[in-house]
Write the structure tokens for this entry.
Amino acid sequence: MNAFIGEKLSIITNKAQTTRHRILGILNGDHFQMVLSDTPGIIKPAYTLQESMMNFVKSAFQDADVLVYLVEAGEKALKDEDFFKKLEHADIPILLLLNKIDLKNQEFVNEQIEYWQEELPNAEIYAISALNNFGVESVLNRLIELLPESPAFYPKDQMTDKPERFFVNEKIREKILIHYKKEIPYSVEVETEEFIEDDNIIRIRSLIMVERESQKGIIIGHQGKGIKRVGSEARRDLEKFFDKKIHIELYVKVNKNWRNDAQQLKRFGYDN
């Protein structure tokens, strides 16, 4: 979606479960409006948060006019057999994108294409490199061809359905995913309590929530160096995103068992 829109709406890391929400990206052309829906990856839920994440996937599948499924070159299975069966019997067009082909040789890519053609004969297979923008235009053109005729759902100048605070939360969480290991990134939720925009600066105060006291210490780091690095890197990215100077304050709070608390999850936007 980021490659289509030309803006980094969805955070990207090499860790699983980076995307937690369903994020809309709105692409407007002279004669079309395409509403792209980026969802969490397919997993078998282990706790309530992950169940909510999979509900986003189900709702997107029900709403879609075209389904785009992204797999990495070398990946040879879907993690949810029931969802795979839905793909096999889908009555809407399916585009399967074989990503990161720049890391593989042509023989391997050809083998992967053959494999997925056998697994999902009802899908159109496209070999791409989203990072290098290879093959992306061909996919975009095909999607435009498949769009049904309909009035535009959103104003022509709108790029997404998410508010500013959502992108602040996600950018902070992205830095935590990048710099912390094991269970720490998956135990974290970010909530922006203050977002004050003036002519030349945006002042932000955000709360990083963890599940245990020991995790709080790890996030803060020795002499506060960990949280300072997260704040500095998030600030630089947010200044590019909002095209304004950013002042950001980060705090860490223990919020026990928030991942299994339905009321808390609803508050954080996992109410699908």
